[in-house]
Amino acid sequence: MAFYKGYEPYVIDCPYHAILLEQTKPDESPRMLHCGATIIGPKVAVTVASCFYDKYFKRPRTNKFFMQAGVTFRREAGELIEVDHHVDHPEYNPNSTDYDVTLVFLKEPLQFSKNIQPATIPEEPVTPDKIGRVVGFGLTEGRDFRGLITHYESVRLIGIDAPLYSQEKCVGFYEGQPEKYHVEPERMFCAGMLRGDSEQYKCPGDDGAGFVVNGVLHGILAFGTACNGRKVPDVYMNVSAIKNFILENKDE
Q1: Under 8 Å CB-to-CB from 11, ≥6 apart: which residues?
Q2: Nearest CA among 115, 134, 152 for reference residue 237
């Protein structure tokens, strides 16, 4: 994900946030950032299922994954633990954006501290008056030495405050877009600033980050097109609509 010209939080302000790294070579440390994730227990986090699938061929990735938590800057150690397995929503299809959610289980438990804490699952759906916090490390837009727009991986946490839109507006924003940007209003919502209205919007890099209000996880970042120049907000899986899957499987 990360965010162009967002603010710069510290992990103590969002201790539920983690990132998923892929180990591309057996003899090297995991470096390739794929997704954000939200910690919901000592050995479990939630993110998008598409994180574990090749985006072009829709095949499961075969390399090892690790989760890093408790860091404001990428160079910090924090906690780095290998992923044991993940459990996708049974309705998830790699060729669709619907039900794009998975539970990530770690081989060892996280040690909770002021920098590592779980978010909670909502008891009630998020209301339209709420503004969510979304953070990440992914691609950030900037300019190179020639003054040309470029994208680079953020070295520190970047965040945005993301206001909600009505479901009617959400569907309308993506009307006529390719099928990969299909909005299912029963299980998704739109949030975030529109490009042009604000200099805070998502770019690619670590989808799966949480839309969090006062420590409660209400959304999981699924997709967005603002970094492509389209004036639309980002789309989130609505946790309230899929929470039965999370609650029934998170303690396996």
Answers
A1: 17, 70, 71, 72, 78, 115, 157
A2: 134
Q: Mean pLDDT over all residues of the chain? A: 86
What pTM was computed for the model? 0.89
- Give pLDDT tens digits for 61-106: 878 999 999 999 988 889 999 999 999 999 999 988 999 999 999 9
Residue with tokens 């690619």: 204
Which residues share a beta bridge with 221? 236
Report yes or no: 140 and 3 within 8 Å, Cβ to Cβ: yes
* Domains identified in the chain and CATH numbers: 3-9+119-240 (2.40.10.10), 15-118+243-249 (2.40.10.10)
Rounded distance between C-alpha atoms, residue 215 and residue 225, angstroms? 27
Burial grade of 143 (CB within 10 A; 0-12, 13-18, 19 or more) = exposed
Q: How far is CA 197 from CA 158, 200, 201, 204, in A?
A: 19, 9, 10, 19
